[in-house]
Known about the structure:
Protein name: L,D-TPase catalytic domain-containing protein
GO molecular function: acyltransferase activity; peptidoglycan L,D-transpeptidase activity
CATH superfamily of the largest domain: L,D-transpeptidase catalytic domain-like
Structural class: alpha+beta
CATH architecture of the largest domain: Beta Barrel
Strand content: 35-45%
Keywords: Acyltransferase, Cell membrane, Cell shape, Cell wall biogenesis/degradation, Lipoprotein, Membrane, Palmitate, Peptidoglycan synthesis, Signal, Transferase
Strand order of the largest sheet: 21-20-19-27-22
Region (Disordered): 1-21
Mean pLDDT: 89
Shape: elongated
Number of strands: 27
Largest sheet: 5 strands, mixed
Low-confidence stretches: 1-56
Radius of gyration: 42 Å
InterPro entries: Big_10, LD-transpeptidase, LD_TPept_cat_dom, Transpep_catalytic_dom
Distance between the termini: 130 Å
Oligomer: single chain
Amino acid sequence: MNGRPISGASAHARKRGRRRGARTLLAAASGATLLFVAACGGGGSDGDGGGDKGGADANKPSQAVVTIAPKDGTKAVATSGALRISAAKGKLTEVTVKGPKGRTVPGKITSGGAKWTPEQHLAAGTEYKVHAIAKDSEGRTSAKDSTFTTLVPKNTFVGQFTPEDGTKVGVGMPFSVRFTRGITAPRAVEKAIRVTTEPSVPVEGHWFGNDRLDFRPEKYWKPGTKVTVKLDLDGVEGRPGVYGKQAKTISFEIGRSQVSTVDVKTKKMTVVRDGKVLKKIPVTTGKPGYETWNGQMVISERLEVTRMNGETVGYGGEYDIKDVPHAQRLSTSGTFIHGNYWGGGAFGNYNASHGCIGLQDVRGGYDKKVPSAWFFDRSMVGDVVVVKNSDDKTIAPDNGYSGWNMSWDEWKA
């Protein structure tokens, strides 16, 4: 073997060198591990301060406190005034109140996020679920849920309305509701009835007494207008302890315009359809002492034949005609425009009725060519009949659908 042999001292030195190098590598490796652990664990003075602040804020609960009244599980809750949602130390950002079938109760967040109030009453005997979220000044959210049930009323009322759903009526027909109980909270009831039209036109309601509410525009409806009415009376407290139980949508359409004007002095009626004169018809109106009302009246009922008895309108036994043809009601008090087969030569010549407007007819109403039949066949509920130049006063606005005799300001008041 060539080369110089390794002495014992040199070999020992090399062994020590290898051991020292191993320790150095181990120490370096350990240092790297410590640095890695420190980096992951946020070691060091700067890391500790920043880590404590960020971690604590992220896990700190929201300071916002949501309060819902009534309390969760409450029964027999009032339909108005009882539902109140608020936030302290924060602002409401979302509120949802749902009834049956997911129907949402409309409401608004007010007072800068401190409160939520419903925009309408609640339905009676109904379970509602509330979900509310609030956010504090640091942007952290807090939520609360609640369920409650409204009261089941012992005493109720409904509104009996006209015109009926799906009908077509004349330009003078208001939407009229007569309530089965007298109303002492008219604003609450009126707020629960919404009338919309297409094309849009302002519609206002007017109360006649405490049990009737009519809606109409300022002037006669425009032909072709579609009217939709939502009766949301369920849960409305119309008088102390008496609640509505009606939720219904009604739609009707306005037909062509027909306004017929009766001139008591000339004893003629001019029928105008969509601005054009269709016909002038001789008539007879109320004789002295029984004059026909002046003013605008609306056809509210149409009868091919009817009985007219003076006793029903306070005239005793002055007349009782069992087969009056082509009768159309103009007032609640008993004013009709109808066929008259007993009037002889009165039509166009003198006034002979007890207040009604008579048109020539035949007994049995079989002749379609006589004036009364002609007018009846061309009329509809909601058509307007105007009487002028009578010696009587103007008909009362609540006698039939005669509210058109009020000015718009009077109506809105």
